[in-house]
Write a structure and sequence with these properties.
With 245 residues, this protein is mostly helical. The chain has a single domain (4-243), classed as Up-down Bundle (Ferritin), CATH 1.20.1260.30. Helices cover 60% and strands 0% of the residues. It contains twelve helices and no strands. It has helices spanning 4-23, 30-60, 73-77, 80-87, 97-103, 110-124, 131-134, 152-167, 181-193, 199-204, 208-218, 234-243. Helix 2 runs antiparallel to helix 9. The longest helix has 31 residues, at 30-60. The protein is globular.
């Protein structure tokens, strides 16, 4: 029997992605749009992952009202080294997805803000075991692309809509989510745009049924399996590994 809850969550995710596509229609083509949506989802995910990790630890220690997002950057800096050792990366409270989102409409330099935040996230992992997984994570997210708009104001307007669209996705906590939100979003975006992307689409899209069949064939007689993944989505898998602390 089909999993009704899972299908409902998947349909809701697809509707949210389509709503963002509708907002950006006529400006960003499908292939680039895919990178913007996935990049923003990644940004939201790592922000929430880190915040939840810190909040859970502080609340278990007795501070029931602790909220990392409300903490000052100066105070948070004291925990940078330990968090990088434990999580593999670090994000200042002011640079969390939720806080950048909250200021987005009033931020006349939103494109520069995002560029700085992404660089800080990647730089935070340098010298740690997770460096390779974070290096170039946001390379395909060009905040200054003319495809977003001819002026900085237009680009920021669309970046703001992009952030809000991903903010409004009802993903819940990743650990409690019944679908692989990132894998499903990737597949849906590829389905939407691969047919119009020429050679690139064919190279980067493998239908889910084919992936499942290859996985089953590749794991025949195996008694223990660590992980199975396609090279085309290796970045997402590496990314998830980094956060599994």
């Amino acid at each position: 029997m089909p999993d009704v809850k899972k299908e409902q969550e998947r349909d809701e995710l697809h509707r949210a992605i389509w709503a963002i596509a509708d907002e950006l229609r006529g400006s960003v083509d499908g292939w680039d749009f895919k990178n913007y949506v996935l990049g923003t989802m990644f940004y939201r995910y790592i922000s929430e992952n880190l915040s939840t990790y810190i909040n859970d630890g502080e609340r278990e220690s007795g501070d029931a009202d602790f909220d990392y997002a409300a903490m000052s950057d100066a105070d948070a800096e004291e925990a940078r080294e330990g968090l990088i050792e434990e999580k593999g990366f670090f994000i200042l409270p002011s640079e969390l997805f939720c806080n950048v989102c909250a200021r987005a409409a009033q931020d006349e330099n939103l494109n520069e803000t995002l560029e700085t935040v992404f660089r800080h996230i990647e730089d935070s992992a340098k010298g740690s075991p997770s460096e390779n997984s974070f290096a170039g994570l946001f390379d395909d997210f060009d905040v200054n692309s003319n495809k977003l708009g001819a002026t900085v104001a237009k680009r920021n307007e669309r970046l703001c809509k992009l952030l809000w669209g991903v903010r409004d996705m009802r993903l819940g906590e990743v650990k409690n989510h019944d679908i692989d939100a990132f894998g499903d979003a990737y597949e849906y975006l590829m389905t939407m745009y691969a047919s119009n992307a020429g050679k690139s689409g064919g190279e980067f899209f493998t239908p889910a049924d084919v992936s499942e069949l290859l996985t089953r064939l590749g794991t025949v007689s195996k008694t223990e399996i660590n992980k199975v993944y396609e090279s085309k989505v290796q970045t997402m898998i590496q990314f998830s590994d980094c956060l599994a602390a």
